[in-house]
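Long-time lurker, finally posting.

We've been working with HPr family phosphocarrier protein (Lysinibacillus louembei) and I want a structural starting point before designing mutants. I don't trust myself to interpret raw outputs, so I'm hoping someone here can both generate the structure tokens and explain anything notable. Sequence follows.
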Amino acid sequence: MEKTFTITAAEGLHARPCTLLVQGVSAFQSNVTISYNGREANLKSIMGVMALAIPSGGKISVKAEGDDAAAAIAKVEDVIKSQGIGQ
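Top reply, 14 upvotes:
Generated this for you. Predicted structure of HPr family phosphocarrier protein:
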């Protein structure tokens, strides 16, 4: 399962939103990855996500594979929208 988002936060994906996303998906058993600009990182790894240096306006793709993949994607979408990170 995969979903695409556009980062709208003025400062892009810096430490606080990265932490919120990582915390949001860490409870799920599925493998969850985030892709930006041809590079991919484990969404459960704060350092991996921050290393992608995703700016405001960046288009990201979040992919989940596993038994709770749909719930993991729904959680990512909830965090991104409710925290004003993107759409």
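Before you design anything, note these points.
Residues 69-82 form the longest helix (14 residues).
The chain has one domain: 2-82.
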